[in-house]
Design a protein that fits this description.
By secondary structure, the protein is α/β, with parallel strands linked by helices. It has a single domain, classed as Rossmann fold (3-Layer(aba) Sandwich). The chain is 39% helix and 14% strand. The chain has 12 helices and 11 strands. It is globular. The protein binds NADP nicotinamide-adenine-dinucleotide phosphate. The site of NADP nicotinamide-adenine-dinucleotide phosphate has 25 residues, from helix 1, helix 3 and strand 7. Pfam families: DUF1731, Epimerase. InterPro entries: DUF1731 (IPR013549), Epimerase_deHydtase (IPR001509), NAD(P)-bd_dom_sf (IPR036291), SDR39U1 (IPR010099). It comes from Streptomyces dysideae. Belongs to the NAD(P)-dependent epimerase/dehydratase family. SDR39U1 subfamily.
């Protein structure tokens, strides 16, 4: 198949590109700074010559959007919103204008669309969409708003010959340098992998192999449209999540962090405390109902595999993107 991945130069793009190319597909990445073979330039805003690669492709997987690894200032939140909504609209315009449109468009979304909650898991049918929770910082609602507008941009695209799926993905765990697993593992190895702010908040995650398998499953299954959760069936409290990670690497202790320490840690990581403190309890309702089997359903086994591959070193876990590889 010819598969086009707008925004495919980041962490998730590297995972998909690697796996889909190895599976024999012809993968083209749309990027604002093309430098390598199979990369085509676009600006994520306006139609241009790049739309020719969409015309005649089989699958489009749009991952583009300003990185969420930043402080959530007003300007950064606005850039996160605009880059996601506009790039999705322009991908939709390219598909709508194509003489031979792709048969499926997988659009990245996020598990962050669901409410901060502890009481029950969120699936696609009974899950609670966030934005109105009491006692959480006001800007958390804005992250939900980004996710909703992102999905709406795909829904509103007039692409009658192309099946549309929104990927409500949890954190994708791969051993690659600079990815989210790498950051968490570094914290654990420094002895800082303890509970944050009590550690009750749920962590949803998906192993990179299952993420790729789920994408392939959704490409194949013509009966599935709309939002689909990509998350392992075993989300767990952050305290247990980090304990399993420490045990997989062999780190005996993890210092607990209070709220203000999380602030400091998030600042040091150039990230935001929402990523650490929001309870994301998300389960794969539609994937499971459709018969998808996770290879890594439980976190201890997944963490064990990721640690093993991480220990193989750079050959086993290549850098995930140009910018991360160069340390930028
Ligand atoms: N990583 C996860 O675990 C995870 C989980 C759930 C959802 N997501 C979402 O999935 C998508 C991919 O994740 P990722 O971790 O691979 O993100 P990433 O590493 O930040 O990569 C996203 C890509 O988007 C492109 N981009 C950035 N700003 C842009 C803009 N203003 N206009 C057009 N393109 C822009 C960049 O490509 P160029 O600079 O080459 O143009 C970048 O490589 C993101 O939207 C993320 O929010 C990720």
């Amino acid at each position: 198949m010819k598969i086009v991945i707008p925004g495919g130069t980041g962490q998730v793009g590297a995972i998909l590109d690697r796996a889909l190319t190895a599976a024999g597909h012809d993968v083209v990445v749309l990027t604002r700074r093309p430098t390598r073979e199979r990369e085509v330039g676009w600006d994520g805003e306006m139609p241009g010559p790049w739309t020719e690669v969409i015309d005649g492709s089989d699958v489009v997987i749009n991952l583009a959007g300003r990185s969420v690894s930043c402080r959530y200032t007003e300007a950064n939140l606005r850039a996160m919103m605009d880059s996601r909504v506009r790039s999705t609209q322009v991908v939709g315009e390219a598909i709508a204008a194509a003489v031979r449109p792709p048969r499926v468009w997988l659009q990245m979304s996020t598990a962050t669309v669901y409410a901060h909650r502890f009481d029950a898991p969120n699936d696609e049918t009974t899950g609670v969409i966030g934005g109105t929770e009491p006692d959480v910082p006001g800007y958390w609602a804005y992250s939900v708003e980004i996710a909703r507008n992102w999905e709406r941009a795909q829904e509103q695209a007039d692409t009658p010959h192309t099946r549309k799926v929104a990927l409500r993905s949890a954190m994708v765990m791969s051993p690659d340098r600079g990815g989210v697993f790498d950051v968490l593992l570094r914290l654990a190895r420094l002895g800082l992998g303890g509970p944050v702010a009590g550690g009750r908040q749920y962590v949803s995650w998906i192993h990179d192999r299952d993420f790729v398998r789920a994408v392939e499953f959704l490409v194949d299954r013509d009966d599935l449209t709309g939002p689909v959760n990509l998350a392992a069936p075993g989300p767990l409290p952050q305290r247990a999540f980090m304990r399993a990670l420490r045990s997989a690497w062999g780190v005996p202790v993890g210092l607990p962090a209070t709220n203000w320490m999380a602030e400091l840690g998030a600042f040091a990581l150039r990230s935001d405390t929402e990523l650490l403190l929001k309870s994301r309890r998300v389960v794969p309702g539609r994937l499971s109902a459709a018969g998808f089997d996770f290879e890594y359903a439980g976190w201890p086994e997944a963490a064990g595999d990721l640690v093993r591959r991480r220990r193989l070193g750079p050959g086993g876990a290549r850098p995930v993107s140009r910018s991360l590889a160069s340390g930028a």
